[in-house]
Amino acid sequence: MQAFPHSTTATPTAVVVPPSLALPVIESAFPRRLHPYWPRLQEKTRHWLLEKRLMPADKVHEYADGLCYTDLMAGYYTGAPDEVLQAIADYSAWFFVWDDRHDRYVVHQRAGEWRRLRYRLHAALDAPRHHLHHPDPLVAGFADSVLRLYGFLPRTWNQRFARHFHAVIEAYDREFRNRTEGYVPGVEEYLALRRHTFAHWIWTDLLEPSAGCELPDAVRKNPAYRRAALLSQEFAAWYNDLCSLPKEIAGDEVHNLGISLITHEGLTLEEAVDEVRRRVEECIEEFIVAEREAIRLADEIDDGTVSGKELSAAVRACVGNMRDWFSSVYWFHHESGRYMVDSWDDRSTPPYVTNEAAGEK
Question: Residues 115, 121, 124, 130: what is their CA dihedral angle, to the nearest 10 degrees?
Fold first, then answer.
């Protein structure tokens, strides 16, 4: 389904993209799509956040829809079964809440609380059923969302997802230490870490339940498929850095590609912005080439057998959703209240979080 022409928020208005962040090729060559289940998705994820006590009721009521978390997922996994999309959207909303908790722990120098949360998440990932009633809502909500995701594909997919998310948790721990110590990673170190903190392989894994098929290693590890998947995620991470750079410099942040370029490559702010933008635009150009190669792979897989035809269709669905990710990420950054820093009373404290990190006394 074609997405709303302007905005998916409750009061649609034309979205104004600042010239410095505008990407005409996305607006013209990557048509925006939205899963038809989206309105129900938004409602149910809002209720899930309340039920799992992941955000205070007043924050959910005032901010949840405007944060556009469900819009981001409904614009990505556009062909997923409704049940799969709902599980992904709830998990994604949890991820943003976790990211906010992590940020509050950094701001308040809560190393002990972060260490305990890190260990609990590792445990819940391996045994989600045993953590559904954990006293920390963040751990219980994580267990609930992971258990649902584990129900769609075989155990081998679950094990891969768990392995990838264990790495994400450890990357968040590395970021915690970097931020509390004021350490700015070098460019290559940052790029490698960012692939985990942005959860590149998690979002890529979730393409498979959306397509209703666990892809064999021969497909997932094929250079054409892997390149297209990586470029779609690199675009998202680097465009996020581009949009976040001014506010993160103002907040003495250390985790941003632009900040690494300024610190370690000697670039000025303007030069860093230009370089991050150049990398973002290069991702788009390279994806278009990689996409053709991945579609060619799908054609080769269709060998006339039933299984070949089904696998080919699944690969096409995954690659199509990789393309959808570009427009979904782009518009999310200009519609979500998460990035409207200029409208916040306190630029250091997002209005949709409690300043004291939840879940700890």
Answer: 50
Q: At what angle do helices 257-265 and 269-301 cross, to 10 degrees?
A: 130
Mark whether 235 is an active-site residue. Answer: no
pLDDT: which is higher, 349 or 213: 213
Average pLDDT, stretch 82-107? 96
Which pLDDT score is estimated for 129? Answer: 97
Q: Is 332 a catalytic residue?
A: no
- Concerning whether 96 is annotated as a catalytic residue, the answer is yes
By the 10 Å C-beta count (0-12 exposed, 13-18 middle, 19+ buried), 318 is classed as: buried
Rounded to the nearest 10 degrees, the angle between the axes of helix 187-197 and helix 223-250 is 100
Quick one: DSSP state of residue 337?
A: G
Tokens in use for 85?
A: 């999309």
Q: Whole-angstrom Cα distance, residue 234 to residue 80?
A: 23
Q: Write out pLDDT tens, residues 154-179.
A: 999 999 999 999 999 999 999 999 99
Report CA Rg, the chain: 20
Active site annotation includes 30: no
- pLDDT (0 to 100) of residue 206: 98
- Catalytic pick among 142, 161, 176, 198: 198
Q: Which of 4, 40, 53, 96 is catalytic?
A: 96
83 vs 145: CA distance, rounded Å: 12
Contacts of 88 (CB under 8 A, 6+ apart): 73, 77, 80, 149, 206, 209, 210
Between these two residues, 259 and 12, which has the higher pLDDT value? 259
- Taking the C-alpha atoms of residue 161 and residue 168, their distance in angstroms, rounded to an integer, is 11
Q: What are phi and psi of 277, to 5 degrees?
A: -65, -40
Of 95, 142, 176, 287, catalytic: 95
Q: Assign residue 212 a region: left if phi > 0, alpha if psi is -120 to 50, beta otherwise? A: left
| Cα–Cα distance, 177 to 118 (Å, whole number) | 13
